[in-house]
Each structure stands twice: as structure tokens, then as C-alpha cells.
């Protein structure tokens, strides 16, 4: 399953030595304070996802936060990505820039006349994997009850239910269709329902 990696637009002071990834080797002249700022034209949650994690970093559970400065062209595409705050892991930094340049799309900034202009946009990317699912807990829940002739439940007992269960299964028991014998006459029936999770040995 694909999960979005958190993207946050914030301003941070750049480090002494910034890294740059760019499509155009010529540094673009940009309007630093346009009349209308650039805005995302697509969902930022799809720009960098957990599928983009370098495999070794995902296995190691490596996390990091990257802050980038993007150059947005008048077309709305990203032509340059500068790392202004590193995650401390060069491959995460490079992945963030590569995916932002590949996928990020913007409504371009505009000048006072409404003409699209090149501008800068700060974008933070937080690399964090979704929490792992908790291991199954060994359980042996047994529920016994009687279904009366009118379909109601009585004599209900439960054993083995966890102490933190939100509901008493007996209280949540539904009303069933009235049980009938083969000849069609109404009768009572007793049932036992079990739910068991068991840990098994692993074969060598």
C-alpha cells in the first residue's frame, strides 16, 4: 500500500553548503516577492510516498526531514531543487528532490499584471514509515448462549475476552430468526462460538 510522506511548506535558514538538483544548469532568475504566490496544483501527498523510500533505508527504519527550495517555472513545473536543510542522509535528500521535480505541479506565481513568473517555493519532506501492525495476541474466547423460541438470546456467557474489550459480546448479541425443528415446530437451541488465536512453532 502506498502511503504519503508528510510534506510541509516552511521557511528555514539554509546551511553553509547547500546541495542542488536541477534540470536546467543555468540558475533561473526569479521574482522573490510576486503579487500572487505559487500554489500546489496537485495533491502534495502524492509527490513523495513510502514507495519512494530507498530499500536499505526502509529496512533499517531510517527516518529524516528534508527542507527544499524549489524553483517554479511559469509553466508550473519545478526546474530546480535546492536542499536548504539536510536530513543527514544524502540518499533521502536526493530522493526528495528527484521526486519533487518529477511529480510536483504548481499554479505559477504571477506579477502585478497577472503574467506567470518564475518563483521560489519552500517545501519540507519528512521521511517516516507507517507504524507496524501489532503482533497478534494469543486468544481463546468462548461464547455460549441459548436462542429462545422467539429468537432472543439468553443464558449468555463469555470466557477469555480481553479486559479492555469495548463491548460485552452478550450485550451486543443480535435477535435471531426463531429456530425450528425439522417438523417446523419452534424450539430452543444452545450454541457455542469460539475465537482462537494460537502461536505455533516454526519448523526448522
Quick gist of this model?
This protein is mainly β and 204 residues long.
What's the SSE blueprint?
Blueprint: E1 6-8, E2 19-22, E3 39-40, H1 55-60, E4 64-72, E5 78-85, H2 90-103, E6 106-107, E7 109-110, E8 116-117, E9 119-127, E10 139-147, E11 153-159, E12 189-197
Antiparallel strand pairs: 1-9, 2-5, 3-6, 4-5, 4-9, 7-8, 10-11, 10-12
Number of strands: 12
Task: Tell me the strand percentage band.
Answer: 25-35%
Number of helices: 2
User: Main beta sheet: strand number and arrangement?
Assistant: 5 strands, antiparallel
- The gross shape turns out to be elongated
How much is the average pLDDT?
A: 83
Rg over CA atoms = 30 Å
- End-to-end CA span: 31 Å
| Uncertain ranges | 7-18
Order of helices and strands: EEEHEEHEEEEEEE
Helix content: under 10%
Helix vs. strand class: mainly beta
The largest sheet has its strands arranged as: 1-9-4-5-2
Features:
204 residues, 2 helices, mainly beta, 5-stranded antiparallel β-sheet, 3-stranded antiparallel β-sheet
Protein described:
Residues 7-18 have low confidence and may be disordered. The longest helix has 14 residues, at 90-103. This protein has helices at 55-60, 90-103, and strands at 6-8, 19-22, 39-40, 64-72, 78-85, 106-107, 109-110, 116-117, 119-127, 139-147, 153-159, 189-197. The protein is elongated and about 90 Å long. The protein has two helices and twelve strands. By secondary structure, the chain is mainly β. A five-stranded antiparallel beta sheet has the order 1-9-4-5-2, with helices on one face.
Amino acid at each position: 500500500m502506498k502511503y504519503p510522506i508528510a510534506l510541509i511548506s516552511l521557511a528555514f535558514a539554509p546551511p553553509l553548503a547547500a546541495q542542488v538538483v536541477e534540470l536546467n544548469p543555468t540558475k533561473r532568475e526569479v521574482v522573490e516577492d510576486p503579487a500572487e504566490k505559487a500554489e500546489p496544483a496537485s495533491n502534495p501527498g502524492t509527490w513523495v510516498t513510502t514507495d519512494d523510500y530507498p530499500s536499505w533505508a526502509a529496512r533499517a527504519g531510517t527516518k529524516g526531514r528534508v527542507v527544499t527550495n524549489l524553483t517554479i517555472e511559469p509553466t508550473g513545473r519545478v526546474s530546480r531543487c535546492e536542499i536548504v536543510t539536510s536530513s543527514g542522509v544524502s540518499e533521502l535528500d536526493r530522493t526528495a528532490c528527484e521526486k519533487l521535480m518529477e511529480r510536483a505541479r504548481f499554479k505559477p506565481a504571477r506579477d502585478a499584471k497577472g503574467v506567470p513568473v518564475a518563483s521560489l517555493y519552500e517545501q519540507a519532506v519528512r521521511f517516516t514509515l507507517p507504524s507496524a501492525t501489532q503482533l497478534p495476541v494469543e486468544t481463546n474466547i468462548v461464547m455460549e448462549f441459548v436462542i429462545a423460541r422467539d429468537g432472543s438470546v439468553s443464558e449468555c456467557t463469555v470466557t477469555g475476552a480481553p479486559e479492555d474489550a469495548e463491548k460485552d459480546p452478550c450485550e451486543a448479541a443480535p435477535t435471531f430468526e426463531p429456530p425450528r425443528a425439522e417438523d417446523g415446530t419452534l424450539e430452543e437451541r444452545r450454541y457455542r462460538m469460539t475465537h482462537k488465536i494460537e502461536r505455533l512453532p516454526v519448523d526448522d
